[in-house]
Amino acid sequence: MSQKFRSTCPISSALDVIGDKWSLLIIRDMMFLGKKTYTEFNKSSEKISTDILSNRLTKLSKLGIISKGKQEGNKKTNIYSLTQKGTELLPILIEIAQWSDNNLNDHLKDEAKPFVNKFKSNKEEFVKSMYTFLKN
């Protein structure tokens, strides 16, 4: 996929690739919730529409952020996984979550707090454990 960029600014270029909320939420679901299938992504609480979900999975795959394969024993089900390029977004997502906790804390749901507390207590160790988890 030939990506068109609005400018040569690195922040703007990154936003052209992963800047829409749906792409980041798909990556979040893969990274932190272990979701791998279209059906699992479709059940996310943000209620992404099926056409947008399909579009974003295709886009992220073509850009090399995720890879698409078939489920072993079920050739009808596609399995999505983060590539190295996708895994490298881990520190960015943690920083976004930390910023949200610092600035939007009253808005966070209780189920998000244990996750936030894990990396707040020792971010370096959390990142290391997440990289190990993502390699498996």
From TrEMBL:
What domain of life does the UniProt record list for this protein's source?
Bacteria
Q: Does the keyword Calcium apply?
A: no
Q: Does the keyword DNA damage apply?
A: no
Q: Which residues form the HTH hxlR-type domain?
A: 9-108
PROSITE patterns the record matches? HTH_HXLR
One Pfam family cited in the UniProt record for this chain: HxlR
Q: Which UniProt keywords apply?
A: DNA-binding, Transcription, Transcription regulation
Which InterPro entries does the UniProt entry name for this protein? HTH_HxlR, WH-like_DNA-bd_sf, WH_DNA-bd_sf
Protein name, UniProt field: Helix-turn-helix domain-containing protein
The organism is: Flavivirga aquimarina
